[in-house]
Structure formats: C-alpha cells, structure tokens
C-alpha cells in the first residue's frame, strides 16, 4: 500500500496572514470614520482570516501526520495562528 505524500505548511504563510489581519485591524481602528478605508480594511481583514481558517487546520494536520514537520518554529506559528482565530471567535460570540 502506498503511503500518502506528506506536506508542511510554510510558517511564512501563517505569519503573513497574521500580520495582514493585525495590520488591517490597526488601520480600521486608526481611521474609524473613513468609508473607503473601511471598505478596503474589512475585505483585507476578512481575506486574512479566511487564509488563517484554511492554513491553521492544514498546519495541524501536517504537524499530526509528519514527524519531520514538528519543529518549534512550525509549532509556534500554529499556536499563534490558533490564538489569532480564537480571539476572533471569542470576540464574535
């Protein structure tokens, strides 16, 4: 039986999504009255969170199935991505 090919989610993708979401949230907080900024910032924030919503479970799967992917930088980025999604989920409830 052939084994499934393993993959690893690059840490830079998760860090990029976290940085984009934090930057978009900061812009939204800094310019609360500007409608154009809110259009741009809200879509950017939604896109970054959607990317995190895909990348974090993929990273969890990669960490669970591939022992070679269990390095501290990948575990750290997984935990940070999960924390970012948890803050959003807690704030939405």
Overview of the structural elements:
With 93 residues, the chain is mostly helical. 77% of the residues lie in helices and 0% in strands. The chain has helices spanning 11-30, 35-65, 72-92. The protein is elongated and about 55 Å long.
* DSSP E strands, number: 0
- Helical content, roughly? over 70%
Rg, nearest Å? 16 Å
What distance separates the N and C termini? 45 Å
Topology:
Blueprint: H1 11-30, H2 35-65, H3 72-92
Descriptive key words:
3 helices, mainly alpha, single chain, 93 residues
Write a compact overview of the structure shown.
With 93 residues, this protein is mainly alpha-helical. It contains three helices and no strands.
